[in-house]
Write a structure and sequence with these properties.
Mean pLDDT: 85
Strand order of the largest sheet: 1-2
Number of helices: 14
Strand content: under 5%
Order of helices and strands: HEHHEHHHHHHHHHHH
Largest sheet: 2 strands, parallel
Radius of gyration: 33 Å
Number of strands: 2
Structural class: mainly alpha
Helix content: 55-70%
Low-confidence stretches: 1-6
Shape: rod-shaped
Length: about 300
């Protein structure tokens, strides 16, 4: 909390002494305050209530300066400085890099952008107040970029408000960067998990369909009609996620099913082939031999 008083010069020294006494007391009582960091911000002397807002802004700026100068101090807000050109230059460099990382769904590039941002801020000469404004702008740019790319984040509306509140309570730049990294990567990872589950859902549906209709002449067209997908897109997606094309998966599933069917002599090879979707016994035998290394009759003698 920042309190602003319009005081005369003769009281300023006494108030500063009391502020120092308060600060020292809080430092000595640190264990009772769960490692609470303390910063007291003071402004210049103002002689009019009309200037109280200016006094507040100076004290607020001073408290933010703990990010640069460290906490557990009394900081003077009368020596404010602005690095507007540096501030804008960092934004102009960081936001496009972050947007590119989001668009490509690269968590690695997002982390690299944040690490570079940290190094740049450390060398920038920005005030603590400007750093807070900058970090909030970066977080907002991330969320806008996710929206622009139609990447839905669960609880998106509350993320920025929560982040903005938490960043105000940080007492150092490393703490702020850790919060930024955690806030962005956690929401990004949650989105990626949701996206991956969405992409995998049609593949799981396709696999279930194949198992359910194993005795039928299942085709890629049948599958894509079932899941309402374009054949070329689904083929590419299936191979990307499973490491094999759909036709190979279909043969593999038929062969695994054939291995599990009754192996007694009363259940003919022709019947096994038919039960796993083959009408051509030669085609079945060829695929079975290639898959297991044994002809169906040999496999039955060994494992029947």
């Amino acid at each position: 909390r920042v309190s602003n008083l319009t005081i005369s010069a003769d009281l300023r020294e006494r108030i500063c002494e009391q502020c120092n006494a308060l600060l020292n007391h809080l430092k000595q009582s640190r264990d009772a305050f769960f490692s609470l960091s303390v910063t007291i911000g003071v402004s210049r002397i103002f002689h009019s209530l009309d200037e109280s807002h200016s006094a507040y802004k100076e004290a607020q700026w001073a408290v933010c300066q703990r990010i640069v100068d460290g906490s557990d101090h009394i900081l003077d807000g009368s020596c404010q400085h602005r690095e507007q050109e540096v501030f804008l230059a960092i934004l102009q460099e960081s936001i496009p890099a972050l947007e590119s990382a989001v668009e490509s769904l690269s968590e690695e590039n997002i982390i690299q952008t944040i690490e570079k941002l940290y190094t740049t801020i450390r060398q920038s000469g920005l005030s603590g107040y400007e750093i807070l404004q900058l970090i909030n702008a970066i977080m907002n740019a991330y969320l806008l970029s996710m929206q622009k790319n139609k990447y839905h984040i669960p609880n998106e509306d509350s993320i920025f408000a929560s982040f903005s509140e938490n960043v105000r309570n940080c007492s150092s730049l490393p703490e702020i960067i850790d919060l930024l990294r955690e806030s962005i990567t956690s929401s990004f990872e949650e989105y990626c998990r949701e996206k991956r589950n969405t992409e995998l859902r049609p593949i799981q549906t396709a696999k279930q369909y194949v198992r359910k209709h194993i005795g039928e002449a299942v085709t890629l067209k049948d599958i894509c009609t079932e899941i309402n997908f374009n054949e070329a897109y689904f083929s590419a997606l299936f191979k990307k996620e499973t490491g094999m094309n759909f036709s190979k998966y279909l043969i593999q599933t038929r062969m695994e099913a054939a291995k599990e069917l009754p192996r007694n002599s009363d259940f003919t090879i022709e019947a096994v082939a038919k039960d796993v979707g083959y009408t051509d016994i030669k085609s079945f035998t060829k695929n079975f031999s290639k898959y297991t290394g044994l002809k169906p009759s040999e496999y039955r003698r060994l494992y029947g």
